[in-house]
Specification:
The protein has 374 residues and is α/β, with parallel strands linked by helices. It is 39% helix and 15% strand. The protein has two domains: 227 residues, 3-Layer(aba) Sandwich (Aspartate Aminotransferase, domain 2); 122 residues, Alpha-Beta Complex (Aspartate Aminotransferase, domain 1), CATH 3.90.1150.10. The strands form four sheets. It has a seven-stranded mixed sheet with strand order 1-9-8-5-4-2-3, with helices on both faces. Strands 7-6-13 form a three-stranded antiparallel sheet, with no helix packed on it. Strands 12-14-15 form a three-stranded antiparallel sheet.
Length: 374
């Protein structure tokens, strides 16, 4: 097979938009004509739909996944003097919000198979100052929520699920984001449920927490012009909510397409020497926001370049773990302290993954990998 001349993007959302252009345009035009651009029935409709999808009693729409995490920490009154445990192998937003509320991020290492928190290290990291843990269902793979909830309950700490990359993933019979105390979602365009701009949401079954998050996201206002907390402005636009309402109907189908793509990658890639395919836990059903392999023997950057020459674009999520980032120099982590995340950050390579990736394109990716490595 000769590589085709068309290069394959790591991510593409134009095909998806084209498949639903008429439906989205009509909904956007309706919002424009309604004059209700902030708040109102479209936002409320989306919140109800998203809560029902997750079988939780409350959903609060907000401006981004970052804000969702921030609002959760604020509503739980986590701040100066508190510690929050999370993974160093995630997008900066996860730890950024811990710092933003004045608390201290405490990083524990990851499992090299799933790239998620190594829960065996959690108990030892809990101190009297620990208030919460933020598990990240990275690349769409659910964290083992049974073990996590058992330990968190025993130690009386909150669990804030970072579901930014895992909308629609399940652990057992439950959706991620409905298991911990709070679930935080992002609708950034590259996420599984991606809007046409920024957006986020929070899910919880705790009505008091939900009420507090609503107050904080709306300038701390509980009644009009009566402020009970220092708040922020974090609203989802009605235009985004209208688009997300439509897209939510298709989310399970898209996630199923991602799963089919992942299973088509698994078997041929597992035969190729020098790479390791991602692992799934049996009780988790992931949604493959990324399909991320490990490239051994220091060949990752070389392979990435070679694939690009063959028309296959890839991404590196994430090239440097958070505990070694300059912004956290004050936390005094040493290189070698969280060895798995440090090693993995030099090995990971995320292959093209989006629901519309065709079988022919996928064959080209597999061919390019075989060609480069054997
Ligand atoms: C994207 C992302 C966020 C932040 O979401 P935004 O909507 O971009 O603010 C948080 N955590 C993880 C793991 C993410 O991938």
């Amino acid at each position: 097979m000769v590589p085709s001349l068309n290069s394959i993007p790591a991510f593409d959302n134009k095909l998806q938009y084209a498949s639903m252009e008429a439906e989205i345009s009509a909904a956007v035009l309706d919002v424009l004509a309604s004059g209700r651009y902030i708040g109102g029935p479209v936002i409320e409709g989306f919140e109800q739909q998203f809560a029902a999808y997750h079988r939780v009693s409350n959903c609060i729409a907000c401006n981004s996944g970052t804000d969702a995490l921030y609002l959760a920490l604020r509503a739980l009154e986590i701040g100066a003097g508190d510690e929050v445990i999370t993974t160093p192998f995630t997008f900066i937003a996860t730890s950024e919000v811990i710092s933003a509320v004045g608390a201290k991020p405490v990083f524990i290492d990851i499992n090299p198979g799933t790239y998620n928190l190594d829960l065996r290290q959690l108990a030892a990291a809990i101190t009297p100052k620990t208030r919460a843990v933020i598990p990240v269902h990275l690349f769409g793979q659910p964290v083992d929520m049974d073990s996590l909830m058992e330990l968190a309950t025993a130690k009386n700490i909150f669990v804030i699920e970072d579901c930014a990359q895992s909308t629609g993933a399940t652990w057992g019979r439950k959706k991620v984001g409905s298991i911990g105390h709070v679930g935080c979602f992002s609708f950034y365009p590259t996420k599984n449920l991606g809007g046409c701009g920024d957006g986020g949401a929070i899910t919880t079954n705790d009505p008091e927490l939900a009420a507090m998050m609503r107050v904080i996201k709306n300038h701390g206002q509980s009644n009009q012009y009566y402020y009970e907390a220092v708040g922020v402005n974090s609203r989802l636009d009605a235009i985004q909510a209208a688009i997300l309402q439509i897209k939510l109907k298709y989310l399970d189908m898209w996630n199923q397409q991602r799963r089919a793509i992942a299973s088509r990658y698994h078997s041929p890639l597992s035969q190729i020497p020098g790479i390791i395919i991602p692992q799934e836990l049996s009780k988790g059903k992931g949604v493959w926001n990324q399909y991320t392999i490990r490239v051994l023997d220091g060949k990752r950057d070389w392979l990435r370049q070679k694939l690009q020459e063959l028309g296959v674009n890839t991404m590196v999520y994430y090239p440097m773990p958070l505990h070694l980032q300059p912004v956290y120099a004050n936390l005094n982590y040493e290189p070698g302290q969280l060895p798995v995340s440090e090693q993995i950050s030099h090995e990971v390579l995320s292959l093209p993954m989006f629901p519309e990736l065709s079988e022919e394109q996928q064959e080209q990716v597999i061919y390019a990998l075989k060609d480069s490595l054997s």
